[in-house]
Amino acid sequence: MEIVLAIMGGIIVLVLAVLAVFLLNQLAGINLETKATVFVKSKSAYIFCAIAAVSGFVHYYIGRDYHEPVEFVMDFIILAAMAGLSFSDCANRKIPNRFLLGLLIAWIVINCGYCLYDMESGFSLIIGGFSGALISGAVFLLCYIIVRGQLGAGDVKMAAILGLYLMGDRIVTALIFGIFISAIYALVMLIAKKMTFKDTMPMAPFLFIGTVIVVVLS
Question: N or C terminus of the chain: which is more exposed, having fewer CB within 10 Å?
């Protein structure tokens, strides 16, 4: 029975991820056939969705006894959303504000609804979300100020939304993994002379990797 539920969880994440890619395709004006970039080809949309689905399956199967249903709901949503944002960032370097606003509204609805069911636990999740958003938003805002031109305002807002969903404890780990892996990638590309210090690269895929690691291991 547990494996069936885990498979269903993976399917739900896959459907949400495909929906996220579709919505972002409309919001950012991305054409799956013609807007591939040097960084990644259009097939990345399917790769990101597949990674999100597998992560959702593993997360539920391993952590089903340690998390509340509402936590799985938020983890599934953010996995799917980050898969879509990773594609959007790679294909067109866009993090649409309307998509982020939708994630914010979803977070508010889920947590307020949960507060009606369990006030104490719901309030704890809200506090954790705010602390996570504050941490990740502050880190990326600082980076945005220091390396002006290398990060966009959309990256800062995306990081803050990610913090809402992962909350204070997990967002720190996700940021560490994401930033570390992005630094390794940039170093390799610089050594290979496929990138210069003036070039920019999308951050969403690296934050997605950090999110996957944290969600699967939590």
Answer: N
